[in-house]
Please model this.
Amino acid sequence: MKRVYPDKEYCIGCHLCELACMTAHSKSQDLIVAYREERGKDGLSSCKKVFEKGHTCVAISCRHCDEPSCVAACISGGLHKDPETGHTLYDREKCVGCWSCLMACPYGAIRRHPTEGKIVKCDLCAEREGGPACVAACPNAALKYEER
Amino acid sequence: MAIMKYVIIGNGIASIGAIEGIRKVDTENEILVIGAEDSPAYGRPLISYLLAGKIGPERLALRPQEFYEKSNVSTKLGTTVEAIDTKAKTISTDKGETIEFENLLIATGGIPFTPPIPGAEGSDVYNFTNLAHAQTLISKAKEIKRAVVIGGGLIGLKAGESLFDRGVDVTILELSPRILSLAFDENAAALAGGRLAEVGLNVRCGVTAKEIQRDSDGNLKGVHLTDGDFLQTEVVVIAIGVVPNYSLAKDSGISVDRGIKVDDHMKTSADGVFAAGDVAQAKDLLFGDDRVIPIWTNAYNQGFCAGKNMAGTDIEFTGSLAMNSISFYGLPTISVGTVNPPEGDDSFEIATSLDEKKKSYRKLVFQNDHLVGYVLVGDIDMAGMYTAFVKFQMAVPEDAKKQMMAGEPDVLMWPDDFFKDTWNPGHVEQD
Ligand SMILES: Cc1cc2nc3c(=O)[nH]c(=O)nc-3n(C[C@H](O)[C@H](O)[C@H](O)COP(=O)(O)OP(=O)(O)OC[C@H]3O[C@@H](n4cnc5c(N)ncnc54)[C@H](O)[C@@H]3O)c2cc1C
Ligand code: SF4
Ligand code: SF4
Model:
């Protein structure tokens, strides 16, 4: 399957991927509205997170692991593996906000939704034409979406 | 009936792990699951959400029905396995069936531990470990004003909270000096206990029930405590914990210790018979010895590993890791690995940071420059990044340790090779 691979040699820490992620998951699909309104009002947040240490940066999100720890930890059936696509899928309706997945995922890829008892996790922009928005937004090709 | 390639006893999360493990390797041969409870596999921890009224029964099922169809799994629910013949490789059920198996998984979970308390026999004393218990308590909660919960561990706290949410006046009794004594230290327990007190839940530590008082007709009157106090109550919930449900295995000659003994492939002492979940005593990641750690994630992971081995691959179990995530009325807590190292053992180094006002606490436990456990209260968002260090047993250099103690662990602290293999595998650097 295709996954998003971050390359710390290329990442410049500009956080554009985070903004693109937020926009892609917003109601308005508009960067400015998403950032200025939906972020505060609806708790819209990015699935991507940029880490920095000195001059090195990297943008990470869910790896869609072959054998995901989050699925093992989920007490509600809210996370499962799609056997066909290989995606680690999140079902918001089933989730009870127990944070077991957040604790178990050793890749730090799960965050709490700021206002609801739900999680925020990368869905590989499954609905979006042209694949993950973060990859499209990266100005230095530090994120690659490919089969490896 | 033809010989079944895969038979699983028990229909809990270890069973689901096994199905998913088997299907990683073998997508063809039918799997048979036999479960004593008469409902589709449900999230056992969800029974407290159900009792609290936070979710309806339609949200209990862990996997949709089509999962079973697509995975070629047949189920016999409401059916109890009564005996295993390890020589003939057959099992027999309470419905009078005998089924021949090639590979068997015993995933029979745990049963409530009930210490002998005088007066416990009789009406209105309950456990809280399955759906039937939750349903009983839901209807009971409508009629009662007070309940006493014996046990301030995970299950007791969940039972107490859920009854409280139903409008019942609840007192939780915990024999040790603090709640969640295994997963928490004093600071974490004080913050969590404080939150419970704030909402009006009574938690009494250092005492337990000495005797359950009944009138001459046998009706429950109250509980005499070890400190001499008496609590009137209409219901008692005994929720001290669970013990491995291994009698079926033991009676058929399979080796048991505290739980069913398994090797590093989750195999029991009997040929073709595996065990996983709350019933199994399996390798512990941090200690290396075999332990029963009755928690969700371990049950799934053990089932998954057993399943793969049942299907013919050779996979070693990486080991159980104790971990708990529990929220107390909006105050989240997470605890992983070794959180209370033995006192006086100099090989451990502990770093704590407590902010009582903000209700926030962080405890990191290091041993020989490795993170071996942690507790977070309040600010839990970086939990996974700490878990990585415990789980992958990565060395923590001095500067990284400082960063961790500041509450800022991240992936850039990982050893370079491991970072690359994880995040950017198969990538050739171009000049
Ligand atoms: C209220 C509550 C809250 C919890 N919360 C958490 C939590 O937040 N986090 C966490 O990590 N853990 C939690 N746990 C523990 C967790 O639920 C267990 O670790 C987990 O369910 C173990 O799974 P299992 O598949 O091994 O066994 P079980 O879930 O116990 O399933 C075993 C099944 O086997 C069936 N069975 C037994 N004997 C037979 C037989 N002879 N024939 C046929 N079927 C049989 C039983 O009926 C049962 O359905 C909680 C437990 C309870 C009770
Ligand atoms: S959330 Fe974490 S464990 Fe789950 S698939 Fe993504 S990276 Fe893997
Ligand atoms: S927070 Fe939601 S998705 Fe995560 S483990 Fe709990 S129920 Fe599952």
Observations:
- Chain A touches chain B through 42 residues (CB under 8 Å).
